[in-house]
Design brief:
50% helix, Rossmann fold, 145 residues, alpha/beta, 5 strands, globular, 17% strand, five-stranded parallel beta sheet
Length: 145
């Protein structure tokens, strides 16, 4: 029985090999923490600006985009709207990292798939990222996207 369970977990992990995450974060300390955790399992591209994030997402089509709830000038919501309205990026899941007390409801109206409220640990971040990527992968396989 344990052999069968291990086989299922290994097959699921193999589906996640070579998955890419676009990390958008302006603050060096947050960027370092997020990158350190996510790179344990994924190929992570990093940028600090909305403009660069939009271009990277269009050009590279990552498997997940991780954004702070507030980019300079409150541009996170604009970036979410632009990405979800673009044919090439509308199905890429977005994970928003929010400060405690942030208004996350507006992100759901823009079809953002997940959020984490600070403070959180590395395991929680990795679990959320993995679930969003795995769910998208399952949908792609099921519906031949």
């Amino acid at each position: 029985m344990w052999d069968m369970i291990n086989k299922i977990f290994l097959e699921n992990d193999n589906k996640l090999l070579n998955k890419r995450i676009l990390l958008v974060e302006e603050h060096a300390q947050d960027q370092t923490f997020l990158h350190k955790v996510l790179r344990k399992k994924y190929d992570v591209s990093i940028t600090r600006t909305k403009k660069a994030a939009y271009k990277i997402a269009l050009d590279n089509k990552p498997d997940l985009i991780v954004l702070p709830s507030k980019l300079y000038g409150n541009k996170t919501i604009d970036l979410c709207i632009n990405l979800k309205n673009e044919e090439q990026t509308k199905n890429i899941p977005i994970l928003v990292i929010a400060d405690n007390g942030a208004n996350i409801v507006e992100y759901y109206f823009q079809k953002v798939e997940g959020y984490l409220i600070k403070p959180f640990g590395g395991r929680e971040l990795l679990n959320h990222a993995t679930e969003l990527i795995r769910t998208r992968q399952d949908i792609v396989e099921e519906f031949d996207w």
